[in-house]
Amino acid sequence: STERSSVVQCGINICFCDSLQGGVNDKITLTAYITIALLEIPMPVTHSVVRNALFCLETAADEKENHVYTKALMAYAFALAGKEEKRKALLGSLEKEAVKKHGSVHWQRPGKEPEVDLPYYRYRAPSAEVEMTAYVLLAHLTTQPAPSQEELSLASLIAKWISGQQNPNGGFSSTQ
């Protein structure tokens, strides 16, 4: 049974499932999801619903207590909207929280137990961590006119980690 809720956030009235959102259950994360979907349609940033949603995200982006997953979504939403200053600020904040090891870069949930390196065991991250890392990758690559060489270098390290999370069949631990 899936819990369903109705939310009115910044003029957006929708119904959503609580099981999504990478374990983060708040209105800002939901607003970022919806904004991304609308911008990918593509709906213009001048549309009143998109404008209102972006205003809410801009206000929320200034808060220091945002979850890493929420920051990743907001960074991608701002990239799609062409809001370079906000995109770069969030990516800078995310870089401080990045896990850099084995020649790759990824993000994980705060307070997570460190993974144990065992000789014959290959650790695979939970799907929410793969998802948030993928959103950061999209935020790095979605910029106009084109990503800088520095961003492309970081993007390749992120892509390396994501591809390392694939199972032997080429898929991931979930469809999320």
**Domain count:** 1
The total strand number stands at 4
> Number of helical runs?
6
Question: Biggest β-sheet: count, sense, barrel?
Answer: 2 strands, antiparallel
Shape descriptor reads globular
* Poorly predicted runs: 1-9, 11-21
**Class based on secondary structure composition and strand pairing:** mainly alpha
Radius of gyration: 17 Å
* Proportion of beta-strand residues: 5-15%
Helicity level, as a percent range?
A: 40-55%
Under the CATH scheme, the architecture is: Alpha/alpha barrel
CATH topology: Glycosyltransferase
CATH class: Mainly Alpha
Following the backbone from N to C, one meets helices and strands in this order, namely EEHHHHEEHH
Distance between the termini: 17 Å
Give the strand order of the largest sheet, numbering strands 1, 2, ... along the chain: 1-2
Question: What's the mean pLDDT score?
Answer: 84
What would you say this structure looks like, in words?
Helices cover about 50% and strands about 10% of the residues. With about 180 residues, it is mainly alpha-helical. It is globular and about 55 Å long. It starts with a strand and ends in a 12-residue tail after the last helix. The model is unreliable at about 1-10 and about 10-20 (pLDDT under 50). It holds the Pfam family TED_complement. This is PZP protein.
Brief summary of the model shown:
The protein has a single domain, classed as Glycosyltransferase (Alpha/alpha barrel), CATH 1.50.10. About 50% of the residues lie in helices and about 10% in strands. It has helices spanning about 25-40, 50-60, 70-80, 85-95, 125-140, 150-165; strands at about 5-10, 10-15, 100, 105.
